[in-house]
Amino acid sequence: MSSSQFSMPKLLKATQNFSPDMIIGHGDSFLLYKAHLSNGLTVAVKKLDPREFPGFREFRAEAQTLGKLLHPNIIKLLGYSSDGHFVYEYIERGDLQCLLHDSDNPLPWSTRLGIVRGVASGLAYLHGLKSPIVHRDIRAKNVLLDLEFQPHITSFGLARQIESSYVSTIDDGVMGYMPPEYLAGSNVATLRGDVYSFGILMLEIATAKWPNLPIMFDHKKMRIVEWARKMVMGDRQIEMMDSCIPIQDLDEDIVKKYFSIACSCSHEIARERPPMIEVVKLLNELSM
């Protein structure tokens, strides 16, 4: 299904003239509005900052590329306007970051495992396309959850098709999720970079620790990935879990396998990280 072009009058009506009361989210270069179309459909409208808005030709090409992506764990782009607005399906529960860190109702372990499997499936789909797509910004803020807690990967502003051997890493991602090779100065974005970010996301989902904040271990501050490796080496995986998850809900064998997968994905050496199709298989082998 290709995306459609929306007129500005239609979007103004749907968002009540982009009323502040309709804002449901924001980013560095956009505001996100809840909108009601005349046909009764509720959607989300992303209004780009005009200073970040590229030429219409490039914008339309990106919109049409995203509009062709069909996967249950990828946000559906319903359309766009020539003025710099994206129209997406509306996802009811909002982003995973808020539900992990700012909610009074902690997510059950079984729900978290389902979220991880869904994100892995969506990423494997992107990476398995004829012209693979590197997302370049996988993180909890960019995963939306619907009423059934199914995840939908969103925020494709940095995503690029790998149609050649070169995809720039300029302005890629967020500290904490960013692969070490990008931090070291590599200027080529890769699928394995996404795998690293996914591994960090796995750690965050299980532990509820912020990836961009240091963790104390043996009186030393360290990154979440370093802390995770030391905890796994010490056979302390159960201690790593979010304390809000009842211990009776945890199967130690599954928890150990889960962190083994997460540490493999977040390996410091890119070539040692498994492809997402393999990660999906490993996660599906985990049974509750």
UniProtKB/TrEMBL annotation:
It is found in: Membrane. Its main location: membrane. Residues 18-288 form the Protein kinase domain. It holds the Pfam family PK_Tyr_Ser-Thr. Keywords: Transferase. It is a single-pass type I membrane protein. It comes from the Eukaryota. GO terms for cellular component: membrane. The keyword Nuclease does not apply. GO terms for molecular function: ATP binding; protein tyrosine kinase activity. The keyword Disulfide bond does not apply. This is Protein kinase domain-containing protein. It comes from Rosa chinensis. The lineage of its organism: Eukaryota, Viridiplantae, Streptophyta, Embryophyta, Tracheophyta.
